[in-house]
Design goal:
With 166 residues, the chain is of the alpha+beta class. Strands 2-1-3-4 form a four-stranded mixed beta sheet. Strands 5-6-7 form a three-stranded antiparallel beta sheet. It starts with 6 loop residues before the first helix and ends in a 17-residue tail after the last helix. It is globular, with a radius of gyration of 19 Å.
């Protein structure tokens, strides 16, 4: 049996797409990390490689949808790091932490290098803990942010249409 959606739902979707059609779309990925004497820790250096890889793929793919992707790399000071060590190796997508898109948790583990012996940020999702944030998680979170530029909600239960069961 097929889906029996009401016509007004389809019309509302078309209106929503039309209202955002001419609006320029942009996604800003902001990455923060501690840099001391032009060096960072191994964890942040590896995350930067993953981030650059993800950015290249996202910039190309999302340009076809009319979405501009920007990457901003911010340095946090040693003073800020002492007060907020979990602010290092943090990725924000349009101002929201990456973990909020992935239903992930922030954890911490001992670091090294520029961070000294501080407990630094980790990301925990789907039963795994990541000290280096892999490109696939960055891509997944950014695609969810991209969907929001088209007024598509983050999860399906927020988009339940009565009479449609799949």
């Amino acid at each position: 049996m097929g889906c029996h959606c009401h016509g007004n739902q389809k019309e509302k979707g078309a209106e929503r797409r039309q209202s955002t059609k001419d609006t320029p779309k942009k996604i800003v990925i902001c990455w923060r990390r501690l840099v001391v004497e032009e060096k960072t820790c191994e964890r942040c250096a590896a995350t930067e490689k993953e981030l650059d890889e993800a950015f290249s793929a996202l910039k190309e793919a999302l340009s076809h949808l009319g979405i501009e992707v920007q990457l901003v790399k911010e340095t946090i000071t040693p003073e800020t790091f002492k007060r907020q060590p979990l602010s290092s190796n943090q990725i924000l997508i349009n101002g929201e932490p990456l973990e909020s898109y992935l239903n992930a948790n922030v954890g911490h583990s001992q670091c090294c290098g520029a961070c000294g012996d501080e407990e630094c940020r980790t990301l925990e999702t789907e039963g795994e803990r990541f000290e280096v944030i892999p490109s696939d998680l960055i891509i997944r979170a950014t695609l969810l942010a991209a969907a929001e530029t088209f007024d598509i909600p983050r999860n399906k239960r927020d988009y339940h249409i009565e009479g449609c069961y799949g």
